[in-house]
Design goal:
Elements (H helix, E strand, L loop, with lengths): L4 E5 L4 H12 L4 E5 L2 H5 L6 E5 L5 H15 L2 E6 L14 H29 L2 E6 L12 H21 L4 E8 L13 H13 L6 H12 L9 E4 L7
Parallel strand pairs: 1-2, 1-4, 2-3, 4-5, 5-6, 6-7
Length: 240
């Protein structure tokens, strides 16, 4: 392959799907990981391996990466996009939902990093792009645990960036505002979902997954000696 392997988690819809389409069009071979393998295969992208993987299973990630590297060569970029947003009040929300979010949003991200980082350091090149949120920079009503996971994404990304900078490996945080994805559908409270939809309409609509894919492409396609450490992007009328 003339271009290096890119791994995308949560690639079956939303930001992951849009990013897969964008990078495939740019000629990158891809390893797409998600629980819904049929949706990824339906994209019918060239030079793409699709595997049913839960990011909380580090062994499954490692096996898929090994298979893709055998076919396409070493991973040059990991995009940690898989995520869950389960909103609720701290005294009402089921703690199991908190655990799910921390397992996927934090441990899932760390699992992917663990699988690819040693190879990147050894090769003295590579990029890890972690999809966070504006909720990783400030708090929102009903978002306490979700914000906690995304603040963790910001902190972990910056911490590891500092650790591997001398190895010529880049760590990048992408922090979107409200995006038109399936993320909200996992929240069980109809009242919270209705309020969120009203907020989105009040700003005249939210940004599209393609907008995030474009930002990811921009950051990744910079020369290796340039690290765009963080991109924050949202609808112009989004407040806060």
């Amino acid at each position: 392959m003339s271009k290096s392997l890119v791994v995308i988690t949560g690639a079956s819809s939303g930001i992951g799907e849009a990013t897969a389409r964008k990078l495939a069009a740019e000629g990158y071979p891809l390893l797409l990981l998600a629980r819904r393998v049929e949706a990824m295969e339906a994209l019918n992208l060239p030079n793409t391996l699709c595997r049913k993987v839960d990011v909380t299973d580090v062994k499954a990630i490692a096996a898929a990466v090994a298979e893709a590297e055998q076919k396409f060569g070493p991973v040059d970029c990991l995009i940690n996009n898989a995520g869950m947003m389960l909103l609720g009040l701290a005294d009402e929300q089921d703690p199991a939902e908190w655990q799910t979010m921390f397992n996927v949003n934090v441990m899932g991200m760390l699992n992917g990093i663990h699988v690819v980082l040693a190879g990147m350091k050894a090769r003295k090149t590579g990029t890890v792009i972690n999809i966070s949120s504006i909720a990783g920079r400030k708090t929102f009503p009903n978002h306490a645990a979700y914000c906690g996971t995304k603040f963790a994404v910001h902190a972990i990304t910056e911490n590891i960036r500092e650790e591997v900078a001398d190895d010529n490996v880049r760590f990048i945080t992408i922090a979107p505002g409200a995006v038109e994805t399936e993320l909200l559908s996992h929240t069980s409270s109809d009242a919270i979902k209705a309020g969120y939809q009203e907020w989105k309409q009040g700003m005249g609509g939210v940004i599209a997954p393609q907008d995030i894919a474009n930002a990811i492409s921009y950051a990744y396609n910079q020369p290796q000696n340039l690290c765009v450490r963080e991109i924050v992007l949202a609808a112009t009328r989004q407040q806060p």
